[in-house]
Amino acid sequence: MTHHQPKIDTSPKVSDEVRKTTCYMCACRCGINVHMKDGKVAYIEGNRDHPVNKGVLCAKGSAGIMQVNAPSRLRAPLKRVGPRGSGEFEEISWDEALQIAADWLEPIREENPEKLAFFTGRDQSQSFTSFWAQNFGTPNYAAHGGFCSVNMAAAGIYTMGGAFWEFGQPDWDHTKLFMLFGVAEDHDSNPIKIGIGKIKARGARVIGVNPIRSGYNAVADDWVGITPGTDGLFILSLIHELMKAGKIDLDYLARYTNAPVLVNGDEKSPDYGLFLRDEDGKPLVIDRKTGKLTAFDKPGVRPDLHATHRAAGVTHRPVMHLMAERYLDKQYAPEAVAERCGIKADKIRTIAAELARVAFDEAFELDHEWTDFRGEKHTKMMGRPVSFHSMRGVSAHSNGFQTCRALHVLQIILGTVEVPGGFRFKPPYPKPVSAHPKPHAKVTPGSPLNGPHLGFVQGPDDLVLKEDGSAGRIDKAFTWENPMSSHGLMHMVISNAHAGDPYKIDTLFMYMANMSWNSSMNTKGVMEMLTDTDENGDYVIPRIIYSDAYSSEMVAYSDLILPDTTYLERHDCISLLDRPICEADGAADAIRWPVIEPDRDVRGFQTVLVQLANKMKLPGFTNDDGSAKYEDYADYMVNHERRPGIGPLAGWRMGDKGLQHGRGAPNEGQLNSYIANGGFFVKHIPEAAAYYKPWSKEYQDWAVGMGIYDSPQPYIFDLYVETMRKFQLAAEGHGDRQPPDHLRERIKATMDPLPIWYAPFEDDNVDTAEFPVHALTQRPMAMYHSWGTQNAWLRQIHGRNPLYVPTKIWKANGFAEGDWASVTSAHGEIIVPVAHMAALNENTIWTWNAIGKRKGAWALGEDASEATKGFLLNHLIHELQPPKGDGLRWSNSDPITGQAAWFDLRVKVAKASAPPDVSQPAFDPIKSPVAKGPSELTWKVGK
């Protein structure tokens, strides 16, 4: 009999068209193809032509379709009608919402702009939001970097002009040894996964240093389960071993760093520890050829790492002498640090030897001609195939800034920065500190701020202090408490505003910052601060305006809600002025554009800011005749110029002969050009400028043409950060601007110009015998923020989060599957489910962050696993350190940058004798302005 095959369409039509844009499910900013059918999103895939992900897309990116179908989406502007925290709102029109906001903000601007505190979360438009705040006139603006990774960013920029993550990447094509420290798995995930796959395919080794073996560390060839907070000590021990063995790149150090720069060695001098400079202010070195003093950048100079100089009775020694004295000290020997780091001494030696072997024995050369900033022509580029990557794990400690600096010094002494096989900067980096603005905070009623809010101080004169010495900003950024706080201190805003320290505010305006839940330390305390009233019954923080796309926990604590769109319904600008999508081989930026129209009465937050600016006629947004410069954010993206010829987008600008890239006049068709090109622009770096960017004439000239610099900005790396020495000198009594007495010893101890290690502050402030266990959080690779944890697809990966317990603690407490634990810190207690994990530092427990939800939020049912079995470690952490008996409460932050010290947490663990029904603490359900989602979220796209 004839067998009849069924007729199956093996290539069904899945979409009517494909719209290309940029993902927003994490900070990777991958290119995506959004498949449309009957005007709706059918599915999302990676864009193979995109420079970031090259077609690869992770679970988060694919699940973006569920964000635009999420039941938790806010549907219209809301005005609070019940008590704050009750979740009782009424829907209002946009006209009314904008009028309310303007009625609150305009009097503040005319009387005292500092009464507005405007802080944003993980948005990617900080160049724009800071421009808005600057034109409003408030000094109180920052984004989330202060509680995320400012230690990493600031340490990298102060040391070498750029840092990890968005600022640079390994040379994946040539690296033979890749070492990761404390990498957050939600960040840069697709490029790192692609890169690790590439290097492992050709036999390169991966070493992971992290207390927790998950994600990237799980695929590492060698895992180092370090004790939290001791990474800096481990790194300095590696430096000790390399210097002791003579395995450092002396030629690189002499040419491209301040290792040969001469330092004043007279302890009685007011210039003690500062550089010897010429009349033009340039640091001086000794030329090996002539033996004479000369500026570091003089053509033909060969800086000497050894020679000293004596003048007027003062001996000036090169930085290299100071480094040798510091790091060859036995305190950094492997035997001296092994127990504290939780790493055997032989292991430290083995890793140091492997770094040296690969960097020097497997060095190679590329036949690329290039010219350095001293005018010397080179025919080859030396490759040292060792690269590093790091992120929040080493950054989120009170010693994080110095730890990050130590890691950069390790890279630099090996000669592995901006060379083939090593770490490479992504445009617009590298940039010296001097190319960045300094912070500004001069408030003038009815006028803009006198300059950018955030920046890089170069000494005590740049601190943001009022005439009486008090803080100029509500978060106390750029004060003696945290002088180099380049990203602000978002985690301190609410508690400082509540305490009226340094002053009271009128309105707290926040965007995408879930500060009443997973984005705050001391969660319960913050909720109380947001609802606290004074003796007159008025709220201590009088007004709160908030923008979010979803019904998050923070919505209930706000007075006016300006509902945002989801990322497929909006315009966004991923700009070279901000956080672009560049790779090391090229400058790139990107847009998002509304591939679908909202089915709700919502507006993109950036457009709302434009509309508010127009309503208040803010300068920068208003023409001379009083008319509005910009209609919405898309209009701003195209027509705004930060300086002549430089706008938010670098591609397809107008020149004298037509369209050009980099510099140019606004082009009305610019967005259409981006859309036609897949939503992105890229301009590749010439081969001669591919490496040695800080010192390459070819790169510097190319960067000027692109508008990254207005003039060439070559510089040398700062192994020794003179800015920090200036603060130490002030603490020692030198100079006109002096710190308060209670901070002098801390400044002298922590702000060493060469990297040091000191124990995390919590170790000194709590009884570590009572609280012997370290507690950490990580963000899961499948989620990035609160908005991902309510995603119907991603919830199936992480619908709850247990407390992961290592074998030693598991056995000591007699834990079994299904048990619960009581976890107690100096601040509070939680009772949560536990799970056993062997691949974990033996004195460390951890959990996934942001999985736990408060009942009633995010349109989840009250019996949802996130609200019953999910939890936050945040309840155990306080924004202030425990009292020390000195009458002061110190910020739980790095003393240099102010970064939140999330990972300093010390706890004790015990088996819960009577497990509760739900994780503790449990809070009353929030009343939500959106209805609960259905038990099954299903829909059909197309026929």
From TrEMBL:
PROSITE patterns in the record: 4FE4S_MOW_BIS_MGD
Location relative to the cell: Cell envelope
Signal peptide: none
Keyword Iron: yes
Recorded superkingdom: Bacteria
Alphabetically ordered keywords of this record: 4Fe-4S, Iron, Iron-sulfur, Metal-binding, Oxidoreductase
UniProt keyword Membrane present: no
Cofactor(s) the protein requires to work: [4Fe-4S] cluster
Location of the 4Fe-4S Mo/W bis-MGD-type domain: 16-72
Xref: SUPFAM superfamilies: ADC-like, Formate dehydrogenase/DMSO reductase, domains 1-3
Region (Disordered): 916-943
One GO MF term: oxidoreductase activity
GO annotation, cellular component aspect: cell envelope
Family: Belongs to the prokaryotic molybdopterin-containing oxidoreductase family.
Name of the protein in its database record: Polysulfide reductase chain A
